[in-house]
Specification:
Elements: H1 3-33, H2 38-45, H3 49-56, H4 64-73, H5 78-81, E1 101-103, E2 109-113, E3 123-130, E4 135-138, E5 146-153, E6 155-160, E7 163-168, E8 172-176, E9 181-186, E10 191-198
Length: 205
Amino acid sequence: MGVEGKERNRDLESGAHVISGNMGKTIQRLRKAYNLSLSELAEQSGVAKSIISQIERNETNPTLATIWRLSQALDVSIERVLASGDEEPFIEKSSKADTPILVSEDGKMRLAIIGWLKTIEWLQWYDVQSEPGGVLDSDSHQRGSVECLSVLEGEFEVEVGGVVQQAKAGESLRYRCDRPHSVRCIGDRPGRATMVCILKAAVMD
C-alpha cells in the first residue's frame, strides 16, 4: 500500500472513531423503538449479543459488515445508522423506504410512522391513509395519553368510551386514548389524516 493509501486508511479509521460515539446511541434508540431486546436483535442480525452491547456503550468500533447487518435487522438504511453527530447542522431526511408502515387488521388503513424515533416513547405521529370503511381499533395507551386526528381528505369518525364524533377535511378531533378507541374512515371516499399521539401526558380530570 502506498503512502496515499495508508493516509486514506488512517482517515477512515479516525472517521470510524468519530462516528461510533453517536452510532451506539442510534442503534440503541432504534432497537428500543422496535421493542427489541439485545438477544432478539442478535438473533435477527446474526451479530453477537455481547458485540451489540459493546457497540451501544461505544466500547468498540464495528466493521462495516456488522453495521450493515444491524441496519438490515432494524429495517433502516445504513446511512441512518451512521447519521452525523449533534455538533453538525441538523437536517435529517427519511426516505420512503425508511418509513415503517402499520396496517389495520382489516387491511384498509395504513399508518406511515413519520415521527422522530427519538421521541417515540412520548410523542408519535403518523400519516394515515384509508380506504372507505377502514377501521383501526386500538388498545389503551398510558394513562393521560391524548391523540389528535387532523383530517386532510375524506371523513373520519372516532369512538372512545361509547362516544362517537365525526370530522371532515379541515377539522380535527382530540380525544383521550388511555382507553380502547377506534378510528374509522366513513363515507364512500378514501380518507387521509395526520394522527399525533402524546403519551404520558398530564393526567386529565
